[in-house]
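Q: I'm writing up a methods section and want to include an example of the input and output format. Could you take the sequence below and give the corresponding predicted structure tokens, formatted cleanly so I can copy it straight into the document?
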Amino acid sequence: MSNPSLYADLPNLIIGFHGCDQKTLEKVVFKGETLKPSVNPYDWLGNGVYFWEQNLERAWKWAKDSAKFSKKTKGEINEPAVIGAVIDLGYCLNLLDNNCIELLRDQYELFKLGMEIAGKEMPVNTEYRRNLDCAVIESLHRQRIENDDIPFDSVRGVFIEGKEIYPTSGFMKNSHIQICIRNPNCIKGYFVPREVNDKYRII
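A: Here is the clean output for your methods example:
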């Protein structure tokens, strides 16, 4: 099996954005509570707290769409809001890195063999429910714990979504990078995103 890269520790702090309900924002930012990890069997990057990397507008779109189509979040978002977070990804299963991609591919083969031996059906991915991806990633996390390997603090993945932004373009309207935080100590602080002051340049 492939090993993670020597460079799996990503050195810089990033800004992540989490779409949620206004009540959640108030509890987390003003009352010191923490965001609860998602533990659905279809989570795209496995279980953890999800953020859109450096993408405030995408977080707002998700929150507003979730409020409009409440079945997406079981009615948990009534008043859309976005929480900002300063994040250190720590030891990251970075699925934009070839070594991590190969590690997950090898894990898939082990997971598939285990399912065959157990006589179980493989989970299936659909457009918005990544049951297979989640199962393989979670099995990798479990195996690392069983082997006393360093656990991953976070998972990072890119998703190509939406229509092409112009004919034959390789760039899609809703493409984004998502972050899944497993180690809550990676989150250094929460904040309410600010509005731009148009009198000054953005730096």
